[in-house]
Write a structure and sequence with these properties.
23 helices; ten-stranded mixed β-sheet; 25 strands; 4 domains; six-stranded mixed β-barrel; alpha+beta
Length: about 800
């Protein structure tokens, strides 16, 4: 009880002291609010993506299951290799002893037919019963509708899709919608807060047995060796995740017996929007970097407040000395000062969290709208703060209070009692002003600020480089047209006829001088990979590839540096990139070389070498890339590229009209190829703007900290300055002395920051697009800029010192 009484007394005393010095309290709280606020905002986004349980009944009992493989692996993947095949799902469903239900889902973006034809996001599932989220209108899928392949064209609509597409009309139940040109009967409307089990906002759900109609690649339910399904399970009462993992691992071991040499490892955890191990690792790593960046801003704010507390403690030294001399223990005084620090940090945390919840919601909407306009699917995140976010904010606030309050409290409670009582603080002020702690705090601020500003500078330089980077092919005047004919019900024969007629019509458009086809468009973030076997090289080799028509190279201005290009009719031939030729056939002529590929081990002959391009990543040239002639069996996957000498915007519209003249219901995405670069620039632009904002915020806090330290040092040395000037010291000498002492920790901070930046900047190399992680222009310009700001922060109080009247200074205490 005494402890709580003392604590309450400390709180009341702290509040009274803050009332007497409201300026100090306001400045400290605002500084911490900025630092804690951005930390809480970043954690709120991380929580929504990877930590928050799904919006389902009793979410803590719902687990996600993923798998990884070791040893001898020969497996197909539609999405991620950590997914499951349908027979594997049935095996886990029927043989486990720990789950009351097991559900599956797979992403199934589809073309919505009718007057408002467009792509919509969706899933094939069987999870509504397992998740405990029944439709608010209509019914769930029946057992029969989830049993027979391709025999249940029914759908449940999301609440948002129902209200926007059908204006919330309850009569939509029983009506039909066209998905991939097949009629589906609407049987239910999902709850308002349920958008699916992934980050992508689903507009509809259909039974998993409709995968052949709705899922890209048309995965077969009977195929046991293709990963394409995500699994969710509901634990039975009293069953822990650890026990569930052991039980399911037994089943995995039995499945492995059918694949000698393969070992499967399962990952079982509470289900979240992002459970896939590969994506989760990337997001958690990115979040760690983001939290580190905003943590640096908080560190600068902490250093500022610590310096404020040191200055405040100097002014209170007589009070502290009296309390110590009258019997108060040092621990009691430290606790009192820590209470003041914690009150400041908690107030700053509360204010910062409120600002974060308000601003990050708005920023999230702006970023998502930009991503959506760049072609990304709609993302659904719940940024409403929950207990996890509130707990994080409180924990950060408490740790921050201890972090910036402990050292000043220990320093303040160790004064020279005699000098403090007799001289009213001059001795103690001198001790503080010349102590290592204040200089160390300034050095830390400067080094952290340098890291943030150099990171921002590198990202801005990388963004500028991305604007001018040469991808190795020409984009000017090229219009790319995407189709998903397979999803829209086309077979290869029908797709071939469509493409031939479309090429004729596009070729007739005025200004169009070349038309070609390609399975993948360079830098479109879509790529194909395969394994090839080369004589003289042990083991299969991983390569990326594209299937193109003969005009592809000339249209995009990609030179064939050796050999020849494709003819209209080609056999099993290939063109390799320069990097591929150097890797597989160094110091040899690649023309005429052969390799084997596919299950049949078919032999392919190299007929030419093409110039290296940045086909898959904008940041670097592909190290292995092969081109094959377009095949008839891939016509449903072909995209169209056309080169126009005239108005590209007008040509884009004419190409879209030409496609619709052949099929009015087809969904066409046509745009200038130059817009593809926006997909790469947007993340860099967002990251550059964010880092620049953090860097400038850190610069503001650091410059204020430097100004405060030097200003306090000047005020504490007024008498010394007066004596020096009385003895003949020149104002310029006083100015140089103060600048030299003020810049000493700044130079130390710059040196430390340089070393840290040199080590950390390499982590951003993938975002720099040709700019060196040790770019001398960025390092030099940022260092000079920070030095100039620091000099200005030191100069202002130093100039004030040179204007001191020596006679007044001698009487100053």
């Amino acid at each position: 009880m005494t402890l709580f009484a003392d604590l309450w007394q400390d709180v009341r005393y702290s509040i009274r002291t803050f009332r007497k010095q409201p300026g100090f309290a306001i400045v400290a709280v605002l500084a911490l609010a900025l630092g804690i606020g951005v930390n809480t905002g970043i954690f709120t986004i991380l929580n929504a993506i990877a930590l928050r349980p799904l919006p389902v009944a009793d979410a803590g009992r719902v687990v996600s299951v993923y798998q990884s493989f070791r040893g001898k692996i020969n497996r197909n993947a539609n999405g991620s290799i950590s997914y499951f095949s349908y027979p594997e799902y049935l095996n886990y469903r029927d043989n486990n002893h720990v789950l009351s239900g097991l559900a599956v889902s797979a992403n199934a973006p589809a073309s919505l037919g009718g007057a408002d034809a467009r792509h919509i996001e969706g899933q094939v599932v069987n999870f509504f019963t397992v998740l405990g989220r029944s439709p608010i209108l209509g019914r769930e899928f029946s057992a029969d509708e989830c049993a027979q392949p391709d025999a249940a064209p029914v759908a449940i609509l999301s609440n948002l899709f129902w209200t926007t597409q059908f204006h919330g009309d309850p009569e939509v139940i029983g009506s039909t919608i066209l998905l991939n040109r097949r009629p589906f009967t609407v049987i239910g409307i999902a709850p308002q807060d349920f958008t699916g089990t992934g980050m992508t906002r689903s507009s509809y759900w259909a039974p998993v047995v409709m995968a052949g109609t709705l899922v890209r690649g048309n995965p077969k339910l009977s195929d046991a060796n293709t990963s394409w399904l995500e699994i969710l399970g509901r634990l039975k009462p009293g069953v822990s995740i650890a026990r569930a993992h052991v039980d399911l691992a037994v089943i995995a071991g039995r499945i492995d017996q059918s694949y000698p040499g393969r070992t499967t490892t399962l990952a079982v955890d509470t289900a979240t929007f992002l459970g896939e191990p590969e994506a989760r690792t990337i997001v958690l790593a990115g979040s760690a970097v983001a939290l580190l960046a905003v943590g640096l801003v908080l560190l600068i704010a902490c250093a500022n407040v610590a310096n404020l507390l040191l200055a405040r403690a100097a002014a209170r030294q007589k009070e502290i000395a009296i309390r110590l001399s009258t019997g108060a223990s040092r621990g009691r005084l430290v606790r009192q000062l820590l209470t003041e620090s914690l009150l400041i940090s908690l107030a700053g945390g509360a204010l910062g969290s409120l600002l974060a919840f308000w601003t990050f919601e708005s920023l999230y909407k702006i970023v998502m709208s930009n991503l959506y306009s760049a072609g990304a699917p709609p993302i659904a995140l719940n940024l409403t703060p929950d207990l996890r976010v509130l707990g994080y904010a409180v924990a950060v606030s408490a740790i921050t209070g201890i972090l910036f309050g402990l050292m000043p409290a220990l320093q303040a409670t160790r004064p020279d009692l005699v000098s403090a009582l007799k001289e009213e603080g001059s001795g103690f002020a001198s001790h503080i002003s010349r102590g290592w702690l204040r200089g160390a705090l300034v050095a830390a601020q400067v080094s952290v600020c340098l890291v943030l500003l150099i990171a921002a500078g590198l990202l801005v330089r990388g963004l500028q480089s991305a604007q001018a980077v040469d991808p190795g092919f020409s984009m000017r005047g090229v219009v790319v047209t995407y189709f998903d004919l397979e999803q829209q019900g086309y077979d290869n024969a029908r797709a071939l006829q469509f493409h031939r007629r479309l090429i004729e019509r596009v070729s007739a458009i005025p200004g169009v001088d070349a038309v070609t086809q390609a399975v993948t468009v360079p830098l479109s973030r879509s790529s194909y990979g395969t394994m090839i076997e080369i004589e003289g090289i042990s083991g299969p080799q991983q390569v990326n590839f594209n299937q193109v028509s003969p005009q592809f190279f000339s249209l995009l201005g990609i030179p064939i540096v050796r050999g020849r290009g494709f003819l209209e009719t080609e056999g099993q031939t290939a063109i390799v990139s320069e990097a591929t030729a150097k890797r597989f056939w160094p110091n040899q002529e690649p023309q005429g070389k052969t390799f084997r590929m596919g299950k049949e081990k078919a032999s392919y002959q190299v007929i030419g070498v093409a110039k290296d391009i940045r086909a898959t990543w904008l940041s670097h040239v592909d190290q292995t890339f092969l081109y094959f002639p377009a095949k008839l069996e891939y016509q449903t996957h072909q995209n169209l590229l056309a080169h126009a000498n005239g108005n590209v915007v007008a040509t884009t519209k004419q190409i879209r009209d030409a496609a619709h003249s052949l099929d009015p219901n087809i969904i066409v995405i046509a745009k200038p190829l130059e817009e593809v670069l926006e997909i790469w620039r947007l993340p860099s632009r967002i990251l550059a703007l964010t880092t620049t904002a953090l860097g400038l915020l850190g610069l503001l806090l650091a410059s204020l900290g430097i100004y405060g330290v030097v200003s306090y040092a000047v005020s504490a040395r007024i008498r010394e300055i007066g004596i020096r000037m009385t003895l003949g010291a020149e104002p310029k000498g006083i100015l140089r002395l103060i600048l030299r002492q003020g810049m000493r920790p700044v130079i130390l901070g710059l040196a430390i920051g340089f070393v840290v930046c040199a080590a950390a900047s390499r982590l951003m190399s993938v975002m720099l697009y040709g700019v060196s992680p040790l770019d001398p222009l960025t390092f030099g310009a940022v260092s000079l800029f920070l030095t100039a700001v620091a000099l200005l922060a030191c100069y202002l109080p130093a100039r004030r010192a040179t204007r001191v009247d020596p006679m007044e200074a001698l009487h100053y205490e």
